[in-house]
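Hey forum,

I'm writing up a methods section and want to include a predicted complex as supplementary material. The small molecule is zinc ion. I've pasted the protein sequence and the SMILES. Can someone with a working setup run it? I'll credit the forum in the acknowledgements.
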Amino acid sequence: MKDFIFSLFFGLTVAIAHAAPGHVHGEARMEISVDREQLVVALEIPLDSLLGFERAPRNASEREAVQGMATKLKDAGKVLMPSAAALCTSTGVALDSPVLGGKSEPGGHNDIDARYTWRCAKSEALREIAAGLFADFPRLQRITVEFAGPQGQRAGRLDARNPRFSW
Ligand SMILES: [Zn+2]
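Reply by user p_vandermeer:
Happy to help. C-alpha cells for the complex are below, copy them as they are.
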C-alpha cells in the first residue's frame, strides 16, 4: 500500500512537471491567421526539437548550432509554403528565444517563437500551408495547428508524412 501511494504521488508529480503548456519535446505549436490578404503564422517550438539542448550554448559548436537553426528558421520559403496560387510574398520573419542572445531561461525548458507574415495577392486561393521543418529538424515529430480565418476556426496535426494543413 505504501508503495502504491508512493508511485501514485510520484506519477502525479511527473505529470505536473510535464504539464507546462505548449512544451512537449518533439511537438511544436502553430497558429495560422488569415485576415484578407494578410497571412500570419506563429510557431512555438521547444529548443530540444531543433538543437537537442535547451540551455545557453556552451562552446563554439553549440553557438554554431544556434546560428544554423536561426538561419534555417529565417528562410520563410523553406519553413512554410502557402498555396502557390495565392501569390503570397513574405513580409517578415521574427525570431525570439533566449538562446539567440546566448542565454537561457531558468527551469530547464526553453522555446523559440517564430512569427512569419505574408501578403497574398490572391488570398481567395489561399487554402493550405505546407510545413518544411520536418526534413531539417528530425527531432521535431508533430505540429499541432490552430487556424482562424474567413472559413472559421479549425485545428489539426501535422507530421513528416502529413505536412500540409488545409482549410
Ligand atoms: Zn524542454
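Some notes you might quote in the supplement: The helical segments are 2-17, 60-74, 76-79, 133-136. The longest strand covers residues 111-120.
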